[in-house]
Design a protein that fits this description.
Blueprint: E1 11-12, E2 17-18, E3 22-23, E4 29-32, E5 38-41, E6 46-49, E7 54-59, E8 65-70, E9 76-80, E10 90-95, E11 101-107, E12 110-115, E13 121-125, E14 130-134, E15 140-144, E16 167-170, E17 176-182, E18 189-195, E19 201-205, E20 234-237, E21 243-247, E22 251-255, E23 267-270, E24 276-280, E25 284-289
Parallel strand pairs: 1-3
Antiparallel strand pairs: 2-7, 4-5, 5-6, 6-7, 8-9, 9-10, 10-11, 12-13, 13-14, 14-15, 16-17, 17-18, 18-19, 20-21, 21-22, 23-24, 24-25
């Protein structure tokens, strides 16, 4: 059952009112705070719905917001895109409880942000075709995408090359999920990728095209690897371990968790026909069906 939680009202930028009475100028990203508050990134601001259901403005007049995230200790982070067509630079910011934005790092055309349990901030930098990691000590360095290996499955994320990144989420095991896009002749081919806690890359959905499957139709129960996705603007992991993907095919896809017994530092590779999955951990451990697990 879908219920309205915030927005739909007529009060613009009004604070202290019920969230249902507020007008939200484009809710573009969400994050849950330490106290259960819901942070909402709009077209030009960050709003906060408090546990009691009332809304307030955290920071207003934000130029080109591109994603928000909250650390375990309650710190709020924001990425912004270039301020004008004459600039190719965006920023990574910490937003104080008083609404002050402190610049932490420079980035280029960011698309999303995620924060893990250790407080590391991951930035989906589509301008540089990379994912960067900002550590609590201030170190800011490439995490995925600046290596020579394409697509990089089975190897270290630091050695992989990716064509672009659009959405991030922290997996329940501490790994990183992200969506990428490979430009195609007729349409773009989206993929769901994973970086394990040990830093190993794998593909969970999409990937090499299966010529025996329809270009635009993914049927219930078919293997996720080899399925055809367009642009995947959002990914989130559900409590049961499955991944929810939003697609520009006017659809949402649920990728069920088929790997409950895999170790965090294992390597998962698909067969060429996407029918089987090979599991390695130093040596070949298992061969499993991509359809039934």
């Amino acid at each position: 059952v879908i219920r309205r939680f915030a927005g739909g009202g007529t009060s613009v930028q009004a604070d202290g009112i019920p969230a249902l009475d507020a007008y939200l100028y484009g809710a573009e990203d969400l994050a849950i705070g330490k106290d259960g508050s819901l942070y909402i990134q709009t077209h030009n601001s960050i709003r906060r719905v408090h546990p009691g259901g009332r809304i307030s403005t955290v920071v207003a007049n934000v130029s080109q917001p591109a994603g928000i995230g909250v650390s375990p200790n309650g710190d709020l982070f924001l990425v912004t895109g270039p301020a004008s067509i004459y600039s190719a630079l965006g920023g990574v910011w910490r937003v104080t409880p008083q609404g002050r934005m402190d610049l932490l790092a420079i980035t280029s055309y960011p698309e999303d942000i995620a924060v893990d349990r250790a407080g590391n901030v991951y930035v989906c930098d589509n301008g540089n075709s990379a994912i960067w990691r900002l550590e609590p000590n201030g170190r800011y360095a490439p995490y995925v995408g600046h290596g020579p290996n394409f697509p990089g499955d089975g190897g270290l994320a630091a050695d992989a090359h990716i064509p672009g990144c659009f959405s991030l989420d922290i997996a329940r095991d501490g790994g990183l999920l992200f969506t990428e896009e490979n430009p195609g002749f007729f349409h773009n081919i989206g993929k769901l990728r994973r970086v394990s806690p040990a830093g190993i890359m794998s593909t969970l959905a999409g990937g090499p095209r299966d010529p025996n499957r329809s270009t635009f139709i993914n049927r219930e129960g078919e293997p996720a690897i080899g399925a055809h996705y367009g642009w995947l603007p959002s990914v989130a992991q559900a409590p049961d371990g499955s991944a929810i993907l939003a697609s520009d095919f006017a659809s949402a896809f649920r990728i069920t968790s088929m790997f409950p017994s895999f170790s965090d530092d294992g390597i998962v590779l698909p067969s060429e026909d996407a029918g089987e999955i090979y599991v390695f951990n130093g040596r070949h451990q298992q061969t499993r069906s991509a359809l039934t697990g």
